[in-house]
Amino acid sequence: MTDSEQTLPASTPDLEAALRVAVENGLPATLADLGRLVRIPSVSWAAFDSTHVAASAQAVADLALGTGVFDSVEIKQAQIPGTQELGQPAVLATRAARNGRPTVLLYAHHDVQPPGSDDEWESPAFEPTVRGDRLYGRGAADDKAGVMVHIASIRALVEAAGPDFELGLALFIEGEEEFGSRSFATFLEENREALRADAIVVADSGNWDTTTPALTIGLRGNVTFRLGIRTLDHASHSGMFGGAVPDAMLAAVRLLASLHNDDGSVAVAGLTGSLAGTPDYSEEQLRAETGLLDGVSPIGRGSILSRIWSQPAITVTGIDAPSVANASNTLSPSVSVRISARIAPGQAADDAFSAIEEHLRQNAPFGARIEIDDVDTGEPFLVDTSGWAVAEARRAMQDAWGREPVDIGVGGSIPFIADLVRVFPEAQILVTGVEDPDSRAHSPNESLHLGVFKRALLSEALLLSRLNERTGH
What is the pLDDT of residues 305-362, one digit of tens each? Predict the structure, then answer.
């Protein structure tokens, strides 16, 4: 039986018109709820107050209960593998499918990145503030807007089609995505049946721009670790021994420089990538979206988007060394750095880590001793775009935005998607989102474009309505 034979007629014009009205009329309440979520400083990192994450989970659970459609709404935690610790609280809500309709799993996360320096925010990080056509605040885009897209699209479906719709739903709002989803795999195993679905919508990505939707079909993986470099067993006077004794900072600078070629491309043997075709994207656009200073050149080889989507990257994200203010005339005995590598789709993260580790050990200058620990890996991902769910998502986006969606890759990582694929190999995965190139997720002045939010919400409402009419999945 073909897809066309399996699918009932498309939603009636009256129903889709009712959905548009429901989204429009519900927008003020949706934005008010989003503002309340943004006010909760739900940073999941270990150094922050976990009671805020618990409060955020409760607020999301209340929103899920308020839809009136779920058979069960729970706040749950799972154990972090290899420890006795529980992960941060997640919300799990379920509704059984009826009469052969599919089940859709809706994923987002309610935890957020730390705010960073208050001085870099134009308005307080946890005080939602509208300036122009954007809502500013930590989590306003990543990913509390994703939470509200799910909640509000369900509300719109209820408003337009009534509460007795037959589509199955599982709502999974995670509480530690920004801290590595450490208990995610355990959570999936413990709640496998509740989370089982025909299609999974991960609302944690972005769009091409503020007027063009995108479906994310490729994600780089990640490898992060701490690198320690030691050359001395104690600090020594730089005037008395400098020039004969290598200090750890010199060794670190030379070792880190070996990771890249002169043009800034990665120089680690064994890291793979591809020069796949990409949409047009100019250097001028790159400069505008990243703040690249005049006179500073881009790095890497190939088209700009291939460098971001389908080639590896290595970044030093932190250094522990004497500060300038506390610097003394000594040879530093040791330096620690944090390295974050992005892995191109098609390569296993463990293989990439092995290649980087081998490079570091082989290139340690002056016989410096190196130590690598606190390793974390996440797999890259490529979406199978041949399924019916992808076709329905594209159609919904085009109808909501008035433009055909663009298939994009993303330079960032969503490592838990590999766990979803492993546990639910038959499910079709749709990576959507509410961000745009100016959202500045993870950075000061993170923001949500209100027009993008409305169109993303309508896209998901249309998708749910159409899947509610589908049989034979």
Answer: 999 999 999 999 999 998 898 889 999 999 999 999 999 998 999 999 999 999 999 9
Task: List helix spans (H) across 330-468.
Answer: 349-362, 388-401, 416-423, 450-467
- In degrees and rounded to multiples of 5, residue 212 shows phi and psi of -125, 120
pTM: 0.85
In this structure, are residues 151 and 16 in contact, taking their beta carbons and an 8 Å threshold? no
Contact 309, 218 (CB under 8 A): yes
Q: Measured between alpha carbons, how far is residue 290 from residues 82, 160, 171, 253, 407 in Å? A: 39, 41, 34, 25, 21
* Residue 234 near residue 425, CB atoms below 8 Å: no
The pLDDT of residue 403 is above 60: yes
Tell me the DSSP string of 270-331: T------------HHHHHHHHTPPTTPPP-SSS-HHHHHHSS-EEEEEEEES--STT--SEE
Q: Is the pLDDT of residue 222 over 80?
A: yes
Amino acid at 247: D
HEC secondary structure over 161-212: HCCCCCCEEEEEEECCHHHCCCCHHHHHHHCHHHHCCCEEEEEEEECCECCE
The catalytic residue among 16, 33, 111, 143 is 111
- Give 120-145 pLDDT, tens digit per residue: 999 999 999 999 999 999 999 999 99
Euclidean distance between the first and the last CA atom of the chain, given in angstroms as a whole number: 11
CB distance 233 to 333 below 8 Å: yes
Residue 177 designated active-site:
yes
Q: Domains along the chain? A: 3-219+380-467 (3.40.630.10), 221-275+299-378 (3.30.70.360)
Of the residues 174, 177, 178, 198, which is catalytic?
177
Average pLDDT, the chain: 93
Burial of 171 (0-12, 13-18, 19+ CB in 10 A): buried
Distances (CA, A) of 143 to 328, 336, 432, 464: 44, 31, 12, 20
